[in-house]
Write a structure and sequence with these properties.
Largest sheet: 6 strands, mixed
Number of strands: 12
Strand order of the largest sheet: 1-2-3-4-5-6
Radius of gyration: 16 Å
CATH topology: Metallo-beta-lactamase, Chain A
Order of helices and strands: EEEHEHHEHEEEEEHEE
Shape: globular
Distance between the termini: 25 Å
CATH superfamily: Ribonuclease Z/Hydroxyacylglutathione hydrolase-like
CATH class: Alpha Beta
Number of helices: 5
Helix content: 10-25%
Number of domains: 1
CATH architecture: 4-Layer Sandwich
Length: 201
Amino acid sequence: MNLGVVNTIFNSNTFLIYSEEQSGLWVIDPGSNTNELIEWIFKKNKSISGILITHAHFDHIFGLNDIIQKFPDCIVYASPFAIEGFESAKLNGSYYQEIPFVVDCRDYISINEGDLIKLWEDSTVKVIETPGHGIDCISFYVNGNLFTGDAFIPGVKVYTKFKKSNKATALHSINRLMEQFDADTMIWPGHEKNCLLGRLK
């Protein structure tokens, strides 16, 4: 089951993957509304098992420190390239918004193409590298749902004007996803609304 939260400051999407039967849930791209998210988690008597990061731009990681502080045992999963954005306000973009921010997390698990992350006994997340918007961009597939961050936002051209962006690579990543997944796959992007992949083919 997925729950989406729109971060009111940055207008980015945070997603929770959870099961009523499981005490631990998973967060994808914690943005700015961490108080609302944490309140919901406590109300449901749940905890956070892990955090999945699609890429290390500030509007997708701004709430990471708050969550780690409240749930210090949770595990952060991200691209090996994401650590640069974690540690640099200029690379994650927060410096240019006049809210310089770095992640207080030195212990995280580096993930790569094809890795499988175990959520629960009967459910795993597959890691798909989708660079272009950034070199660290990763998408996550679980049970018919594809979480794409900013690598693929249906109806929106991928922004490729960052220092480590690449327009051709971004297009290649989108084409890979279009070819690899079925029409009934639900796309959950980092901004805007979710969309069936079949509507785009």
